Amino acid sequence: MKLKTALTALALAGMIGTAHAQLSGGVLKIGVLNDQSGLYADVTGQGSVIAARMAVEDFKAEAKGIKVEIVFADHQNKPDVGSALVRQWIDRDGVDVIADVPTSSVALAVNEIVKEKNKVFLVSGAASAALTGNACTPNTVHWTYDNWALANGTGKAIVAAGGDTWYFLTADYAFGHDLEAQVAAVVKAANGRVVGAVRHPLSTPDFSSFLLQAQASKAKIIGLANAGGDTINSIKQAGEFGIAKGGQKLAGLLIFVTDIHALGLQTAQGLQFTESFYWDRNDASRDFAKRLAPQVKGNHPTMIHAGVYASVLHMLKAVEQIKTDDGAKVVAKMKEMPTDDPLFGKGVIREDGRKIHDMFLFEAKAPSESKGPWDYYKLVRTIPAAEAFRPLNEGGCSLIKK
Amino acid sequence: MDFFGIPPQALFGQLLLGLINGAFYAMLSLGLAVIFGMLNIINFTHGAQYMMGAFAAYFLLQYGGLGYWWSLLLAPIIVGASGVVIERLMLRYLYKLDHLYGLLLTFGLALIIQGLFQNEFGSSGLPYRIPPELTGGQNLGFMFLPNYRAWVVGVSLAVCLATWFLIERTKLGSYLRAATENPALVQAFGINVPRMITLTYGFGVGLAAFAGVLAAPIYQVSPLMGSNLIIIVFAVVVIGGMGSIMGAIVTGFGLGVIEGLTKVFYPQASSTVIFVIMAIVLLIKPAGLFGRAR
Q: Using one digit for the tens of pLDDT, what is the confidence trace for A8-56?
């Protein structure tokens, strides 16, 4: 009996030993890189770090012999800062996986470095569809959403409802340009017309001047190709300048639940937007919110937080299977295994790195419809996974054999 | 008739908007100019104090049930009092040292205050409504002018001019100016100079908080609102001439208008144009447009 116990213990130790031996540095190090202090800190920030931790806990990584360590840093929405951090993480600190990374300009820079160093890049925060298009790499998985999906969801719905002339308020960097281009393509494809656009610097406090130009354009729809604090301020000030009274409508192209919370339903009601996750959609998502919210001052999780959780979870499953942290191999395994997690359900990761799942067109409730704080969305339409994302052959990804 | 391809309606609209933004620049740079002129301290905490003004308005409404008009009165007093505490406990030890020490201290304080607020309230900000008396707007033909913005321009102009009058044209102001030139002599006349300086700092801080309350209904009440603005405001002060009261007012409004025009002609440059002007002014007139070389 004693011998048997000892042998079992030895065998177990051996198993754990092999798992360790395959991981560089004996530990799987995840670096959550995002905006910790600026205009995207609520939609990503600490929430993403906690979501990653929750994934590791739920996976019970330690018990399965995978030692995981999580670090995080603030890229301040600057590509140079982000690149330097990632290089330092990989070269000096032995980080194996980079997660989240909102702000497309930073994500595109990190994308190159991760490929060069053969690590894993799990994108949740960034929106640029180029990450699975002409900038795709064998080391990147783009999980939560992208500009194509937003344009396809919100843009199509608005054109279908008669909003056929558009004017864009665009954040002047990679994300805004890409989103504007994607939505413009959708609008034109539906025989709509884009009458103009104005580019504003990232993190602008005052939008009145841009709104006035949009107003003068007489377009039916003013498309907000910006995010976070910029979207909040544009919507708020549009109310002040009587945009809606003049018969024009705002289209928030990228809206998060924290934005609606900050605006209040009085201002936000009636806005339609596309997301892949809402905390109050089913029991699993409610449970996720209940665990996460108290750790971030009651802020309920955004789809980006959910995406970090689910992508880290799936990555851990892949590492468990192949017992290595070699970047390209892990991502290949992630693509090979179907995905299944409590927040996004069953899905797949396509060859170009695009995670495929349903998207949802939501509308912000009127104050009278809301039962309390954070009860903000009603579902307008589910966009089935098959038509939610850009078709594989249209992205121009070099991994796809033609 | 078009001006460089821009219809006159749009141009007038942008000029007016520039004036509105200029009102904020003017009020904030005025506070900075007063503090620098009288205390010789470059008050980098100014942006944080502007933000605290907005938060004070939010708290007064949320927990005290006091609306916008009370906030306009109380927030500057509350935040000004916090400024007095800072002056008494820290700043007063630095007057005799190089400017750099005051700058470092206030900059550090600004980071701490901002960090604390951000930790507590996040980055999306909190909503604050326009007071019901000032909702709606006027259709001016060339643009829709929200009543609230018209009020902001009016009240800040009044406050700016009153401050200028107080410092340049009254007896109290003459004491203040004398105390900056030669504190020992003024004290010999029986005037309590340290107290006067403390109150001056409190007043400058109160101005920032007042601007913060004015800004609360336009922008989100957010921990970052000050840091977005403070760098521009410093550029305004430098262009106007450090310590010049009228310089701060005129440059504040003027640069607001220039920035507004940039937003029409080349929006991408709207966040940089003020710094370009600053560089040019510093090259040609290092003391600033209205400053005296010391």
A: 554 444 444 444 447 888 899 999 999 998 889 999 999 999 999 999 9
CATH number of domain containing A325: 3.40.50.2300
Q: Are residues A45 and A166 in the same domain?
A: no
Residue at A397 is within a domain: no
A136: left (phi over 0), alpha (psi -120 to 50) or beta: beta
Kindly state whether A48 is in contact with chain B, defined as any CB-CB distance less than 8 angstroms.
no
A400's CB contacts (< 8 A; 6+ apart) are: A351, A352, A392, A393
| Distance between B72 CA and the closest CA of chain A, angstroms | 20
Q: Round to whole Å and give the CA distance between A242 and B144.
A: 8
Q: Which of A363, A367, A365, A364 is nearest to A266 (CA)?
A: A367
Pick from A200, A236, A242: CB nearest B137 = A242
8 A C-beta contact, residue A174 and residue A164: no
In 3D space, the residue among B41, B8, B27, B3 whose CA is nearest the CA of residue B249 turns out to be B27
Total tally of structural domains belonging to chain A: 2
Q: What is the three-class DSSP state of B100?
A: helix
pLDDT in tens, B242-270: 878 888 999 999 999 999 888 888 888 88
- Which range of residues forms the domain containing residue A377? 148-275+359-388
Same domain assignment for residues A135 and A240: no
ipTM over 0.85: no
Interface of B with A in 4-43 (CB under 8 A): 7, 9-10, 13-14, 17-18, 20-21
Whether the model clears a pTM of 0.80, i.e. scores above it, the answer is yes
**Domain boundaries of chain B, sorted by first residue:** 30-223, 225-294
Cβ distance of A42 and B124 shorter than 8 Å:
yes
Task: Please name the residue of chain A whose CA is at the shortest distance from the CA of residue B142.
Answer: A216
Q: Is the CB of B271 inside 8 Å of chain A's CB atoms?
A: yes
- Which site among A42, A76, A202, A206 would you substitute to test the B interface, given the most B Cβ atoms closer than 10 Å to its Cβ? A206
B120 contacts in A (CB within 8 Å)? 297
Please tell me if residue B181 touches chain A, with a CB cutoff of 8 Å: no
Q: What is the pLDDT of residues A216-269, one digit of tens each?
A: 889 999 999 999 889 999 998 998 888 888 889 999 999 999 999 999 898 898
Query: Which pLDDT score, from 0 to 100, does residue A1 have?
Result: 46
